[in-house]
Hints:
By secondary structure, the protein is an alpha+beta fold. It has helices spanning 6-21, 99-109, 149-154, 162-188, 229-236, 252-255, 261-267, 287-300; strands at residues 28-29, 35-38, 41-44, 52-53, 63-66, 80-81, 87-90, 114-121, 124-137, 142-146, 204-208, 224-228, 240-242, 248-250.
Amino acid sequence: MAFIDELAAREAAMRWLDDRTQLGTRTVTQPDVANFPFQGQDVALLLRQQGICKPRQLDAALSIRTTWTRPGDKPPYEDVEGPDGLVRYAYRGTDPEFFENRALRRAFEHRLPMIWFVAVAPGVYLARYPVYVVADEPEHLRVALAIDEDQRFLGVPRPDEIDRRRSVQRLTKLRLHQPVFRAQVLGAYERSCAMCRLRHVELLDAAHIIPDGKERGTPIVPNGLSLCSIHHRAFDANVLGVRPDYTVAVRSDILGEIDGPMLKHGLQAMDGVSLSLPKQRAQHPDRERVEERYEEFLAAG
């Protein structure tokens, strides 16, 4: 077995993923990224049956995976955000000395970057990288992850570091939850705008029905709409609204304006259009959230 340079291999894996994921914005399947070429060898990157991938040529874990779990089901290994805002990734099994868990520990000891494949649908993953193990917690059978360089610098806050903890929580939401939310929503809507049917993924966003930060503004598909950039901004600004019957409403003053083709075709023409909805009913916009947001739209008008 020929060992290879740990850091160089990781840098090569991430550059290789950049091309296949459009810099981490495009989802992949396990066969797409099972191995990558490095120095004349095929190096394992995402294994079919293992959540922690330690290639035979490396000493430490290269990637980790969070599998898909249907809403309401209990995952086999629960990866959760801790009270300090850092993500906890569960060991495999209950033996801290199991070889995959030791491989995670070595990534922590040598401060090596890893890749995290987060399932956004069955067999479909969003690659987040680089991530770092910033604490080993064998008493809880888990490690703490920093999902970018900023969190890595902050490390694990002490309980008395309230402001620092809040900073870590904001980073976690921005750098992990939002990209995963976008991938899940765009996947549910088959990568098209729910209002105008535009299918250019680079121009699509995942819009919150109830804004992020409010009590029910959670990043889940029933609280999301796949919208192109112009309709996302118009929805956020209450220029456009969504009625409880899933049809689009345009603010009355906007309907009365006279301007160029974008106003006429991009906004005014949306009035009364029915949303294009996901095939799975469980992924449809939550009606209570839609009604709450529509009341806000009416108040703004």
